[in-house]
Design goal:
The chain has 133 residues and is mostly beta strands. It has a single domain, classed as Thrombin, subunit H (Beta Barrel). 14% of the residues lie in helices and 44% in strands. A six-stranded antiparallel beta barrel has the order 2-3-4-7-6-5. The longest helix has 12 residues. The radius of gyration is 15 Å and the shape is globular. The C terminus is likely disordered.
């Protein structure tokens, strides 16, 4: 078995996520999530909302977005609100993209809820964040 090399373990799970902006709310699903950030699967419209013009930006110009993530928990689910920065995007298909977002600032209690979620679910993923079957 190969050793896990990531600083923050990823949990592969499809979670309802809302990207909140001045023009309203865009709904997306996660591919995976960690204590430091997440990867979203989305269409071109969502990609353009996070990365205006669909162009990668320098680190100093990375777009900031507000996310609301619904995390299912053993006892009850919770919503985490967090400011995040767009780090990277990849085109997977004609209208299929993956966005990498890094968390910056959590609303009160949000990081603690995320931390518990990752601790409860990390064993269900392999080294790359893919679900273990």
């Amino acid at each position: 078995m190969k050793a896990y090399h990531r600083e923050h373990p990823r949990v592969a799970m499809s979670l309802h996520t809302e990207i909140v902006g001045a023009s309203g709310v865009i709904h997306a699903q996660t591919v995976n999530i960690s204590r430091a950030g997440l990867q979203l699967e989305c269409d071109r419209v969502t990609r353009d909302a996070v990365f205006p013009g669909g162009q990668p930006l320098s680190p100093s110009a990375r777009p900031q977005v507000r996310l609301r993530i619904q995390l299912p928990r053993r006892a009850e689910s919770c919503w985490v609100e967090v400011d995040a920065r767009g780090v990277i995007f990849r085109r997977i298909g004609a209208d299929d993209f993956r966005l990498g977002l890094e968390f910056e600032h959590f609303e009160e209690g949000g990081y603690h809820c995320l931390e518990r979620f990752v601790d409860e679910n990390w064993g269900a993923s392999d080294d790359e964040g893919a679900p273990v079957r």
